[in-house]
Task: inverse folding
């Protein structure tokens, strides 16, 4: 029987960690873009656009991410579309993150006093200009801590994609366990790697919250 | 032609009608004080004029620009008329200079150097040119309100709407803001102000509008309205002050 050293295990896990990181970045950035679109729909003056965004968010927040992954992976297959695991994983995570980011940011936008919209409007700015030059710069400040905090959820969320066969950190853990028969060591290392990814983010989220609060300009 | 024409304006929130057919024409250079109890509709009327509230019936026009509820018409109208708020509503993330420059650059597409020149001139007009680089939260309430006036003036409006602009100020700060308004009035700016400063209304305004339960109850020159109120409601209102 082949003997595996800790280094062998760790090396393989770290190689797979790359995909966890790539998938997290793709989900977070893609989710951010779709989330921004949702935000604009959500705070629009038009009823249909607000409803559209609301139902989207409720749908994606109201169903488990795992189901969304299954539907993206198997569901599209029913229509004869062959979806590779990486694509299904990426799409599902993007749409899932978007729902949460859109809703987090809506809260931040609504936290800005109504008078700010009115002042900008009375100076002749259109709705998008009010948003871009007056509301978003203020809302972004409040949005940073919860957004960074949510990125931790995204990283942990990528673990679920192992179920549809995407080889990232968790899936690699299973594969390595099957070869080494050392589940405790392997999953212990997997957990440590996740922690090493997530903890700096949680920590910086807390720091940012404190910092931005101190600098918060208000009357 | 009047500068501001308000014709048969009605405004309801659901069942509750807060403006019940307002008619008011404002000539260029007039300074009009709108007085009345809270809930009489005076702030709502002001906010309807520049489209912050949509009217249910009637029409409003400012220098020929009709009030319609779409962005193109609203923008055209809002370029002609500035507004100053009770809570100042300065943009806290921008410096004083940035506050006065932003809409010039964004709405009028003025180049930055010109916008800055205009901003400095307007800030000088309200006596705050030395605060160009300060942030709003470093200013007193009175100074913030003067910046808000400079910000509105930088758009070169034909008229200004003032919505209880001294009500949120400490008493000792009211005078500095009113002094600026008084100067504007002397320079011929058309002003429409909701105010509780009766003495100011008497001294500076050309007409006083007393609103009661969503209607213009009495209107006239300040010396007539204050010295010789015709209705018991106005008598009672003035008695309270």
Result:
């Amino acid at each position: 029987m082949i003997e595996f050293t800790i280094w062998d295990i760790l090396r393989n896990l770290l190689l797979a960690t790359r995909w966890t990181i790539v998938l997290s970045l793709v989900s977070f950035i893609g989710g951010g873009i779709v989330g921004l679109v949702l935000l604009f729909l959500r705070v629009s003056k038009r009823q249909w656009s607000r409803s559209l965004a609301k139902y989207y968010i409720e749908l994606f927040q109201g169903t488990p991410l795992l189901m969304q992954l299954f539907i993206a992976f198997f569901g599209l297959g029913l229509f004869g579309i062959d979806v590779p695991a990486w694509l299904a994983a990426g799409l599902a995570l993007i749409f899932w993150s978007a729902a949460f980011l859109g809703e987090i940011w809506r809260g931040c936008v609504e936290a800005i006093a109504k008078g700010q919209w009115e002042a900008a409007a009375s100076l002749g700015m259109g709705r998008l200009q009010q948003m871009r030059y007056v509301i978003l710069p203020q809302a972004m400040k409040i949005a940073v801590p919860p957004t960074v905090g949510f990125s931790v959820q995204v990283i942990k969320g990528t673990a679920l994609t192992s179920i549809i066969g995407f080889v990232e950190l968790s899936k690699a853990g299973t594969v390595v366990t099957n070869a080494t028969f050392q589940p405790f060591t392997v999953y212990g290392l997997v957990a440590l790697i996740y922690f090493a990814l997530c903890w700096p983010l949680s920590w910086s989220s807390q720091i940012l919250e404190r910092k931005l609060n101190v600098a918060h300009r208000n009357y | 032609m009047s500068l501001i024409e308000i014709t048969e304006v009605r405004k309801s929130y659901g069942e509750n009608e807060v403006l019940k057919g307002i008619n008011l024409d404002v000539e260029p250079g007039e300074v009009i004080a709108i007085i009345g109890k809270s809930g009489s509709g005076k702030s709502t009327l002001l906010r309807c004029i520049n489209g912050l509230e949509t009217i249910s019936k009637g029409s409003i026009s400012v220098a020929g620009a009709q009030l319609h509820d779409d962005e193109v018409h609203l923008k055209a109208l809002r370029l002609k008329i500035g507004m100053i708020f009770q809570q100042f509503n300065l943009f806290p993330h921008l410096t004083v200079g940035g506050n006065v420059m932003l809409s010039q650059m964004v709405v009028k597409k003025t180049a930055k150097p010109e916008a800055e020149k205009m901003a400095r001139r307007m800030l000088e007009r309200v006596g705050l040119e030395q605060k160009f680089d300060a942030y709003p939260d470093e200013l007193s309430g009175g100074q913030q309100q003067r910046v808000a006036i400079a910000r509105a003036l930088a758009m070169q409006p034909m008229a200004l709407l003032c919505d209880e602009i001294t009500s949120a100020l400490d008493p000792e700060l009211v005078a500095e803001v009113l002094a600026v308004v008084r100067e504007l009035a002397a320079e011929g700016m058309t002003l429409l102000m909701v105010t509780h400063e009766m003495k100011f209304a008497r001294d500076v305004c050309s007409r006083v509008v007393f609103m009661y339960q969503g209607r213009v109850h009495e209107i006239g020159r300040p010396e007539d309205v204050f010295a010789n109120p015709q209705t018991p409601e106005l008598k009672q209102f003035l008695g309270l002050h």
Notes: Chain B has a mean pLDDT of 93. The interface with chain A takes residues 50-52, 71, 74-75, 78-79, 82-83, 85, 87-93, 102-103, 106-108, 135-137, 144, 148, 151-152, 155 of chain B (CB under 8 Å). Residues 171-186 of chain B form the longest helix (16 residues).
